[in-house]
Write a structure and sequence with these properties.
The complex is a heterodimer of chains A (157) and B (152).
Chain A (H helix, E strand, L loop, with lengths): L7 H4 L4 H17 L2 H14 L4 H13 L3 H14 L4 H13 L3 H13 L7 H19 L1 H4 L6 H4 L1
Helix pairs in contact in A: 2-3, 3-4, 4-5, 4-6, 5-6, 6-7, 6-8, 7-8
Chain B lengths: L3 H15 L5 H11 L4 H13 L34 H21 L5 H21 L2 H4 L2 H11 L1
Classes of the chains: A mainly alpha (157), B mainly alpha (152).
Chain lengths: 157, 152
């Protein structure tokens, strides 16, 4: 039986707290608009610990912004596999699938993000809600198709 | 009860623009047109979701794609709570240098991917050190020269 390969993070004895702190610095650069430095850090963190959902989610989020969709989907999908209860990867997958005109996949991911935040407090899930509203508007403007939908309109209107 | 009409008013008034998504409508339109079998299911999902919105979210939507667990409103890495002191970062550079040396000694032409990965970690550490403002780490010539030699 082959044992689990030790990550570089484990080899360097980097604690979870230290790892998170490194990620926060990357997030700080991201919020400040310094995407190059943020990317350098997030790419390093993925190499340090390829099993970190947070690292894959952060790099996937940045790649979503930079519209490197293929790479982004790879990291976001990995983040979901590692931690299915994290909201951000679903939001970003939804955004990418809208860009790729894969509306069914987009709605499925946005729905997951929204369901994970029932109190409307998470900024990422609220971004997902805004996207769903955008889709809603387009659907609603298509009046021909609206007739086919049996909706609880009194609830919506 | 919160009315969806007022939410839509805000959408029309630029909510999507504010969060950098003002251009999604054409993509949605083309995507919906491309849907073959499940247009109805998608529309029902969307209407179902919207009908449950409470309406509190408009001002709290992330303006950038969210990052997940690393996001924190208080980035206090520079405070005394930061576990990554200058000394600790120096230790990490030292440890990484030892790993690089190990890879170099094992180098057989097939380890370029591993080396590239360590290079990305090295670059991340350099960027982190800059953030912490530790000049000692900028000038850690031993680590940097070792890495440069291996790259060459």
């Amino acid at each position: 039986m082959v044992g689990k390969t030790q990550t570089v993070r484990e080899k360097l004895n980097i604690s979870p707290q230290e790892f998170t702190e490194m990620g926060r610095v990357g997030a700080m650069y991201y919020q400040q608009g310094n995407f190059e430095k943020a990317r350098t850090i997030f790419e390093g963190l993925v190499e340090l610990d390829p099993e970190s959902a947070n690292a894959h989610s952060a790099l996937g989020g940045l790649l979503t912004l930079q519209q490197e969709d293929e790479k982004a989907v790879e990291h976001l999908t990995k983040a979901v596999q590692l931690n299915p209860s994290q909201i951000a990867p679903y939001v970003n997958l939804g955004e990418i699938y809208i860009r790729q005109q894969k509306i069914e996949d987009a709605v499925a991911n946005l729905k997951k993000a929204i369901e994970l935040d029932p109190n409307e407090t998470d900024a990422g899930a609220n971004r997902a809600r805004a996207m769903v509203l955008g889709i809603y508007q387009v659907i609603k403007s298509d009046t021909e198709n609206l007739d086919e939908i049996d909706l609880a309109t009194e609830k919506i209107n | 009860m919160f009315g969806i009409g007022s939410i839509l008013g805000k959408v029309a008034g630029g909510l999507l623009d504010k969060i950098g998504l003002g251009k999604i409508a054409p993509f949605v339109k083309m995507g919906l047109n491309a849907l073959t079998g499940n247009w109805l299911g998608v529309a029902q999902d969307v209407f179902g979701l919207v009908s449950n919105f409470k309406g509190n979210f408009q001002d709290g939507a992330s303006k950038l794609p969210p990052l997940g667990g690393f996001e924190n409103p208080v980035n206090n890495f520079a405070s005394e709570n930061n576990p990554l002191t200058g000394g600790r970062m120096a230790d990490l550079f030292k440890g990484l240098s030892q790993l690089l040396r190990g890879f170099r000694s094992l180098s057989d032409g097939n380890r370029s991917n591993d080396l590239g990965g360590l290079g990305r970690i090295f670059n991340a550490f350099k960027t982190l050190s800059e953030a912490f403002g530790n000049n000692q780490l900028y000038t850690n010539r031993l680590s940097i020269s070792q890495y440069t030699n291996i790259q060459a």
